[in-house]
Design goal:
The structure is a homodimer. In chain A, α9 runs parallel beside α10 and α10 runs parallel beside α11. Chain A is globular and about 50 Å long. Chain A starts with 6 loop residues before the first helix and ends with a helix. By secondary structure, chain A is of the alpha/beta class. At the A-B interface, α1, α3, α6, α10 and α11 of A face α1, α3, α6, α10 and α11 of B. Chains A, B: Pfam families: CbiC. Chains A, B: Keywords: Cobalamin biosynthesis, Isomerase. Chains A, B: Pathway: Cofactor biosynthesis; adenosylcobalamin biosynthesis.
Chain lengths: 212, 212
């Protein structure tokens, strides 16, 4: 069987198919830059429902590009996110993805308090002034914790990708968070996940590459 | 806002919700063990369509459990899969996830031949007799390459999780592969991805844990 072998051809053809099948009314509601994020999320999931679930609040792409251009730490709530983000672009920008769920002190404290490790890990991130962005792809508890810290004035992120997935708390955590006055990309409802979070950040990286 | 904080409670409640909302006719078509995989994939994606896209062919769960119990190498086509699989269970079983896309020789050869790195990386896996399982979550080209190698009698995997995602070649690669007489879990159509591949393997790990 014949198939396209060159990676660049595959991506171009994929984006063409996505544009031809996505709901035109929904697609028209996004800016050019937002469309790049929408397309990459659909490319990653093969799920067109994301076009109607993605929300861009308070200029997240512009704010993220500005922060990332300075070289910052980005907190991610899973190791899968850490592995999925383009390492060459991270290095070039002087950025780093951090996450503390496997740290000994975090594991100990989570067990003692009977709460999730992701929650304790996130509190550790709040104390690091170099952490300017948050990618939450898995744990609703992490997003609830971030929302509370923003409300209390403890942190003021430059950008948040709020896409935890699941049936218990995920939708509620995103609804709660969406009231915050913070630059953010949000997937409404139950859907989301690590690959979606990665797609959002990588899309912003590609936009930055195009401006070089 | 109040929310469930204990990880075990969250998972139990999620599975209860999934069972109450999944199409009962589709769900009844699976064995008890297959249902554990279906539930975990839906838990990971919040996408109930997976119940009607997942196929189990030639006893993949029994064959995977047998192979994994002996301690084998499992090839994965992305680093995200490698990061997502439960490291404690891997270690306990003496299993290892391998992947060669970042190897210098693979990068060089892919460039020279003008084909994807995942394709060259996979050919390298065929030459390693310890590789008994394959998790393909991203690249259709990897699955096409695996299918060809099985047809040619070059490899005979104990289990394959065939869930590449995308718009160019993904559905075709899985349709082609499904004709092979190999124990496999397949997601039909365009959907799939690294988190889906991880969910399948982790579900099998949980089944093995329950038997200890």
């Amino acid at each position: 069987m014949e198939f396209i072998k060159k990676p660049m051809d595959i991506e171009e053809e994929s984006f063409r198919i996505i544009e031809s099948e996505v709901d035109p009314g929904v697609y028209a509601s996004f800016s050019d830059e937002e469309r790049m994020v929408v397309k990459r999320v659909i490319h990653t999931t093969a799920d067109f429902e994301y076009a109607s679930l993605l929300r861009f609040r308070h200029g997240p792409i512009a704010s993220a590009k500005k922060a990332l251009g300075k070289g910052v730490k980005i907190y991610a709530d899973t190791n899968m996110i850490k592995s999925g983000v383009n390492p060459r672009t991270l290095k070039r920008l002087g950025c780093e993805i951090v996450n503390f769920v496997a740290d000994e002190d975090v594991i100990r404290e989570a067990k003692a308090r009977g709460i999730t490790r992701s929650m304790v890990s996130m509190e550790k991130a709040f104390d690091d002034p170099e952490v300017k962005g948050y990618l939450i792809g898995n744990a609703p508890t992490a997003l609830f914790t971030l929302t509370k810290a923003i409300e209390e004035g403890r942190v003021r992120p430059d950008f948040v990708v709020a896409v935890p997935v699941g049936f218990v708390g995920a939708a509620e955590s995103k609804e709660d968070f969406s009231r915050m006055d913070v630059p953010s990309i949000i997937v409404q409802g139950r859907k989301g996940g690590s690959t979606v979070a990665v797609a959002c950040l990588n899309a912003i990286f590609y936009l930055m590459d195009d401006e070089r």
